[in-house]
Amino acid sequence: NSYSQPFTPFDLKNKKPYSFVEVPLTIMDTTLYRYQKKEVNSVANELIEFLEKNKFNAVISLLWHNNYFTEYKFHGYLPLYKKLLAYFYENNWRSLQPDEIIALYSLN
Fold first, then answer.
1. Which residues contact 48 (CB under 8 A, 6 or more apart)?
2. What's the mean per-residue pLDDT of the chain?
3. What is residue 22's three-state secondary structure?
């Protein structure tokens, strides 16, 4: 929905918020590889530029499937993942646990 923070969806049928929190998916390996067909060597800078532009008032979710850690089929995706983790660490990005997200963003 182009919203950068977790939210509680509204149940239109019952006219009340649902009892769960949605966390928008921001970055996913499969999107880069299969759908956008990004060149892995250039995508790191694009992602870091995106992260720099969205580091305030946003929750960034990163989905990296374990099969992308293999160099056999997904050459370059493990170093890309490591580069993203290094960026998060060097810039003191905070990791949120599910219970923290629920406490911060739940309407209930």
1. 83, 84, 87
2. 92
3. strand
